[in-house]
Design a protein that fits this description.
Helix content is 67%, strand content 0%. It is mainly α. Helix 3 runs antiparallel to helix 4.
Length: 169
């Protein structure tokens, strides 16, 4: 009955039955909690099927994706040409296929695709944010120009005053 979880120097004989049951109950709850945490981490890593978040309605999510989709690949022309050596992940995928480990190859391929999609999404979000800030800056520019142009400037006023005083000298 002793499972090695009692503090050193204590045996089951020294613990009352209700306390022992409470200890076992708490131990099971702790194990269950750890199992749930590992399942959550696996879901976050993408090893389990993705679950859509109920916090946002589907229409809002679709609208968000449509907005980002217009910025996908917008800076592709600025990328340098690919080098002759393939990326390390592609080499690992090829090696796994050659060894016959298709499960590992599929996992690496999924990881590579997820990473590439994440990079594209991040770049699209950056482009969207840049476009928004640029539009806001352009919209605020005419207002700033109007503020700078006072109806009667100080230099013009000074010239006018000096001209009007010329006749009295």
């Amino acid at each position: 009955m002793y499972s090695g979880h009692l503090p050193p120097g204590l045996t089951e004989k020294h613990v009352s039955l209700d306390k022992w049951q409470k200890f076992k109950e708490l131990q099971r709850a702790k194990v269950d909690q750890r199992m749930k945490e590992t399942q959550r981490k696996r879901k976050k890593e993408g090893t389990c099927h993705p679950v859509s978040l109920p916090s946002e309605p589907e229409e809002k999510q679709e609208e968000h994706w449509k907005e980002l989709m217009q910025y996908f690949g917008i800076n592709d022309r600025l990328k340098p040409p690919p080098c002759s050596r393939p990326p390390r992940t592609v080499t690992m995928i090829s090696r796994a296929i050659a060894e016959g480990d298709y499960g590992k190859a599929e996992e690496l391929s999924d990881r590579l695709a997820t990473r590439e999609l994440a990079v594209k999404i991040a770049q699209a979000a950056d482009c969207r944010d840049f476009a928004r800030t640029k539009q806001e800056a352009e919209a605020s520019q005419p207002a700033q120009k109007r503020r700078k142009q006072i109806a009667w400037g100080f230099k013009a006023k000074k010239r006018w005053e000096t001209k009007s005083n010329m006749g009295f000298m």
